[in-house]
Amino acid sequence: MQAHTKKPLTDAVELCFTGPAAKRQEAVDYLRGLGFEAKEEPSKPWREVLPFKDEELPGVFLAGARYREGMTQAALAKATGIPRRHISEMDNGRRPIGKKNARLLAEALKIDPRRLLAV
Asked: Among 3, 31, 33, 43, which has the minimal tally of Cβ within 10 Å of its Cβ?
């Protein structure tokens, strides 16, 4: 049974495309014909729209990679030899990951270790 959500579902989507500049107007016209509206506001750098501070990003990337691989903190601890408590602290940004741990975690999670270091 599905749980009630606080926010009603919406049937509107926002799209962002990258392509040749020469075809921009043609794409805008085609999408308008499908019922889309063009937004002319400038795009923002991704760091500005994330609800996280720069120092929190390594932990966010770690938690996201762990989720993507379907690993619990305990499973990741077993795979890397890093105590589960430390992984929890790294996930939540209370412990720096460090180069050695970044390599161990990245190998277990199949990601680039630089993602887990301060950005």
From this structure: 3
Tell me the three state secondary structure of residue 18: coil
109 contacts 58 by C-beta, under 8 angstroms: no
Other beta carbons within 10 angstroms of residue 72's beta carbon come to 12
Distance (Å) of CA 28 to CA 14, 84, 85, 91, 95: 13, 50, 51, 41, 47
Is residue 66 within 8 Å of residue 104, measured between CB atoms?
A: no
CB burial class (10 A; 0-12, 13-18, 19+) of residue 13?
A: exposed
Count of H-run helices and E-run strands, the chain: 6, 0
